[in-house]
């Protein structure tokens, strides 16, 4: 959705640490999101993205995550917006995660 953008597209942390994903919702509608795809070594993300605000979500970086900068794309399902019978809106969020060792 063009209404949801990453507020800080580059984050960094130690392997085994946590990073904050900041999503900006430019619409007047709330989005209930559930993460459905992304790298195995990056977990978490999901919840309510408030309307006309920036919402933070915590992502956990696995201890076995590869070191270095990684351009990833997280996919979220917007469970309160339907694109067809039994189908929800999907949002792709680009993010660069730098894993330090």
Write the layout of secondary structure elements.
Blueprint: E1 4-6, E2 10-14, E3 18-25, E4 31-37, E5 42-44, E6 46-49, E7 53-61, E8 68-84, E9 87-100
Parallel strand pairs: 2-9
Antiparallel strand pairs: 1-3, 3-7, 4-6, 4-8, 5-7, 8-9
Task: Characterise this structure.
There is one protein chain. With 101 residues, the protein is mainly beta. It is 0% helix and 69% strand. The strands form 2 sheets. It has a 5-stranded mixed beta sheet with strand order 2-9-8-4-6, with no helix packed on it. A 4-stranded antiparallel beta sheet has the order 1-3-7-5, with no helix packed on it.
List keywords for this structure.
101 residues, 5-stranded mixed β-sheet, 4-stranded antiparallel β-sheet
Helical/strand content category: mainly beta
Strand content: over 45%
What spatial form do the alpha-carbon principal axes imply?
globular
Report how far apart the termini are: 34 Å
Residue share in helix: under 10%
Question: How much is the average pLDDT?
Answer: 94
Query: What pattern of helices and strands is seen along the backbone?
Result: EEEEEEEEE
The spatial strand order of the largest sheet comes to 2-9-8-4-6
Which residue ranges are poorly predicted, with pLDDT under 50 across at least 5 consecutive positions? none
Largest sheet: 5 strands, mixed
Number of strands: 9
- The total of helices stands at 0
Radius of gyration: 14 Å
